[in-house]
Automatic annotation (TrEMBL):
Transmembrane segments: none
Descriptive protein name: MBL fold metallo-hydrolase
InterPro entries to which the protein is assigned, alphabetical: Metallo-B-lactamas, NDM-1-like, RibonucZ/Hydroxyglut_hydro
Domain Metallo-beta-lactamase intervals: 21-180
SUPFAM superfamilies in UniProt: Metallo-hydrolase/oxidoreductase
Classification via Pfam families: Lactamase_B
SMART domains: Lactamase_B
């Protein structure tokens, strides 16, 4: 497997691995380098690490995991000799170091900040902010070229708030690396944040109007595909039901 590392900045690179076009990040400091996510299998992980070591010119010492879906973490088993970092609720793989809310890694004149703002795409998403490079690795909290994927463990109500955690520090030149797809700008991130927020907000409005789950997909215009809505709308209805928000039966007029 030959990997092409595309520069995001002079010190930040991205390559994409198949079969799920997962973005793998490489962050290069003066002293050390760090990978973001690991690919689909131990064999792919080993190839990614070897390629990253050849590209970086400094030791690749760390790997940060954005969440535990297999296409992002299964390569870790093939990455020997690195310190793996993930949120404490990531239980699918063995990691070296975990954290609760925030953790920083100094790679030598380059600071990497790993941040957790609560449940979003999953219950343990990590956003990776590089303040000196003005780059954010968003994992699957953002997706380009396809709809964001809804996980049972995530939170549609809190997902926009998670994105706000870094959007508040972003500016017009901030680059966002999604879990899949092309690097995007702040405007793209704001738009997708609003679209994700619409799922929960619009669902709540429909429920107050008496719309039942089976009718919700055709009750209004949605920014996502029917396949995505088939997963997202039951999730939104379940979250709202947990808050006591359910469609009311209307009595027939006499």
């Amino acid at each position: 497997m030959t990997l092409d590392w595309t520069p995001v900045t002079d010190r930040v690179f991205v390559t994409t691995v198949q079969p799920h076009r997962v973005n793998i990040g490489l962050v290069v400091g003066d002293r050390e380098a760090l990978l973001v996510d690991t690919g689909n299998s131990p064999e792919q992980g080993a190839e990614i690490l070897a390629s990253a070591r050849a590209k970086a010119g400094v030791p690749v010492t760390h790997v940060l995991l954005t969440h535990d879906h297999h296409d992002h973490v299964n390569g870790l088993a093939g990455m020997e000799g690195v310190t793996s970092i993930a949120h404490e609720d990531l239980a699918a793989v063995e990691v070296t170091r975990t954290f609760s809310m925030a953790l920083a890694v100094d790679l030598g004149n380059l600071r990497v900040e790993a941040l957790h703002f609560g449940a979003g795409h999953t219950d343990h998403d990590v956003m990776i902010y590089l303040p000196g490079e003005n780059v954010v690795f968003a994992g699957d909290l953002l997706e380009e070229g396809a709809d964001p994927q809804v996980d049972d463990r995530g939170s549609l109500s809190n997902w926009p708030t998670v994105l706000d955690g870094v959007l508040g520090a972003a500016n017009a030149t901030t680059k966002f690396v999604p879990g899949h797809g092309a690097v995007v700008d702040r405007d793209f991130a704001f738009i997708q944040r609003a679209e994700i927020g619409m799922i929960y907000g619009q669902t709540e409005m429909l429920i107050h109007q008496g719309t039942r789950l089976e009718d919700a997909a055709i009750a209004t215009e949605w920014p996502f595909s029917a396949e995505t809505l088939a997963v997202a709308l039951p999730k939104a209805y379940a979250e709202l039901k947990a808050r006591g928000v359910e469609p009311k039966r209307h009595l027939p007029l006499i």
